[in-house]
Structures are given as structure tokens and as C-alpha cells.
């Protein structure tokens, strides 16, 4: 990734003359140079370094180290001991670090292992077959990483690390050409100047900077104002009443305001009960004659059968 300057055409001409044709694409203040082979990649890198151009590397996928996480080890386990033990299993170990929580920085019982390539002997992916380490059962999982913006400690620019950076060092505090830990300014600066957006009032590490990448997640796009109580079924009101805008409270108040219905006296109840018993006795003694239904359907069926029999006789 070549940092954009006004005379970028001259730089690309030098690369084309020295290293051969490349595909170049501009974006976010950098020119990304695509090479066709590892040899050309290394030649472009050496050319940019010799000429003193500002750039940082994007390591090829096949040259990137394998990162795994070893679990089920004690929290205070020595990382050097893990590294030495893995080397005895013929792995090329670049580094072993203990993972920490993102906000509290509290140590976690997980160890990040970075494994390099080797042409002979053990392959990096063979570490997933490892089940025991230092006489303890372990589990090895791929490292998924944290979704956060990467910022270089050397130039304080974004989206790359100091390990692959070949740009001029820039101080986070004063903006001069030296690293932040070498800065002589120890007190707090009231109005710092951001080297990424050139605005006064914040440092390049400020997440509210206009140039600082914003991480978006699916949860931010969701509507969290969903009211579940709004859609609960109300057993005191029907659908028609809800459609008409009648609430359950209105119905309750109307029912309470309605006067009670006139109840008949006991004599009337006794008379109705006596008449009902008389009707029951008469029905038992003289059961009603059931009506014969379906005569029309039966006649239609018989007619159809006759026609069918007639057709069968006429058929040869």
C-alpha cells in the first residue's frame, strides 16, 4: 500500500521499469499495488524501501502465520513453557501471548499461538490434532480475532500494524517525526492536532475522528423499540370491538353502569318449572314421530340406477 502523493505517477513509473507491470488501485489515500507473483512482490518491496517511499505491506495469504487459541490450561501458565513444549512437537512458533478481556484487561485462560510455515516436518495445521500439552488435556480452536480498528504504533495511521509499516514515524502527541514513546512532551496537550484528519482538539486514536473507521454490526440496524406488551392477546375484548376502537375498560364501565335485569319472582320460577316437568312427561309418554327425509335423493338415485341398467342391456 503506497501512500498517495502528488508525484505518484513518477513512483509507479519506477516500479514498472524495475519490477514489471502491476495493477494499481487508489482508495482511502493509498495506492494498492497488485503483483502477479511472490518474486515481483518482494522486488516491489525492496524498490520502495531503497527509494524511501512511504508504504506498508499487506502480507500474502499463503505467507500469513496461522493463529490458534489453546484452551483448558491454567490461568497463570508460563507462555515460554508453552512455546518450548510446542517446539518439541516440531512446530515453528513465532510467539505465544495470553489473551485478555477487551475492556477490563483482565487475563483470560486462553493462549494465542502464532505458528509459522515450514517446508519439511510438521505442518502448521497439525496443531489442531494436538490433544495434550504438559500432561494436560487441551483444545485448540482457530483464532477469530476481535472486531476492532487496527492502528499503527509507528506512524499512527489506520488499518495496518507497525510490524509491516515502512512509513515515517509520527508522534501521537506532537505530530513530529518520532515515535510516541520517544516524545519529550510528557504533560497533557490541551489542543492536539490529529494527523489523520488535521482537526484540532483530538488525537489520532480518538474514535470520534472523521477518519476513524466505524464498525457496524447487525444489532445496530435492528429496531430495539419493540413493545412486546402491545401485542398481547386481551381476553376481555373481541376482534370486532378492537376494530371499532372499543377498549376493555370502556366495556367494563358500560357493564357496570347498566342496571341489572328484572328478575322474576319465586312464584313465576315455580310455575315455569312445573310446566317444564309437564312437557317432559308428555314427551316421554307420547314420543314425536320422526320425519322421513331424503325422499327426493332416493328417487333420484333409483332413476339413475334404472338408466344405467337400460344402457347396459342396450350395449352389445
Automatic annotation (TrEMBL):
Organism: Araneus ventricosus (Orbweaver spider)
UniProt xrefs under InterPro entries: Pre_C2HC_dom
Biased composition (Polar residues): 246-256
Spans annotated as Disordered: 246-277
The name this protein goes by in its record: Pre-C2HC domain-containing protein
One Pfam family named in its UniProt record: PRE_C2HC
Domain called Pre-C2HC: residue spans: 79-151
Amino acid at each position: 500500500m503506497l501512500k498517495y502523493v502528488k508525484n505518484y505517477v513518477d513512483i509507479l513509473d519506477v516500479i514498472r521499469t524495475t519490477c514489471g507491470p502491476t495493477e494499481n488501485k487508489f482508495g482511502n489515500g493509498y495506492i494498492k499495488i497488485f503483483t502477479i507473483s511472490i518474486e515481483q512482490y518482494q522486488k516491489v518491496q525492496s524498490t520502495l524501501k531503497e527509494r524511501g517511499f512511504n508504504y506498508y505491506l499487506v502480507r500474502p495469504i499463503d505467507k500469513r502465520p496461522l493463529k490458534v487459541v489453546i484452551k483448558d490450561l491454567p490461568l497463570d501458565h508460563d507462555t515460554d513453557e508453552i512455546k518450548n513444549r510446542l517446539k518439541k512437537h516440531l512446530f515453528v512458533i513465532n510467539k505465544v501471548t495470553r489473551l485478555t478481556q477487551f475492556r477490563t484487561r483482565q487475563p483470560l485462560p486462553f493462549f494465542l499461538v502464532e505458528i509459522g510455515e515450514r517446508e519439511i516436518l510438521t505442518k502448521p495445521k497439525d496443531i489442531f490434532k494436538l490433544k495434550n500439552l504438559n500432561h494436560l488435556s487441551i483444545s485448540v480452536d482457530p483464532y477469530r480475532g476481535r472486531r476492532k480498528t487496527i492502528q499503527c504504533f509507528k506512524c499512527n495511521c489506520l488499518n495496518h500494524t507497525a510490524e509491516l509499516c515502512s512509513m515515517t514515524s509520527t508522534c501521537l502527541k506532537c505530530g513530529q517525526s518520532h515515535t510516541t514513546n520517544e516524545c519529550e512532551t510528557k504533560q497533557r496537550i490541551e489542543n492536539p492536532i490529529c494527523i489523520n484528519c488535521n482537526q484540532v482538539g483530538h488525537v489520532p486514536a480518538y474514535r470520534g475522528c472523521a477518519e476513524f473507521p466505524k464498525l457496524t454490526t447487525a444489532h445496530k440496524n435492528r429496531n430495539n423499540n419493540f413493545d412486546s406488551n402491545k401485542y398481547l392477546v386481551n381476553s376481555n375484548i373481541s376482534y370486532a370491538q378492537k376494530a371499532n376502537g372499543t377498549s376493555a375498560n370502556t366495556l367494563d364501565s358500560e357493564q357496570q353502569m347498566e342496571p341489572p335485569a328484572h328478575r322474576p319472582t319465586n312464584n313465576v320460577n315455580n310455575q315455569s318449572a312445573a310446566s317444564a316437568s309437564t312437557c317432559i312427561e308428555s314427551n316421554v309418554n307420547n314420543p314425536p314421530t320422526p320425519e322421513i327425509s331424503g325422499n327426493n335423493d332416493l328417487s333420484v338415485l333409483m332413476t339413475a340406477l334404472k338408466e344405467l341398467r337400460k344402457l347396459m342391456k342396450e350395449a352389445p
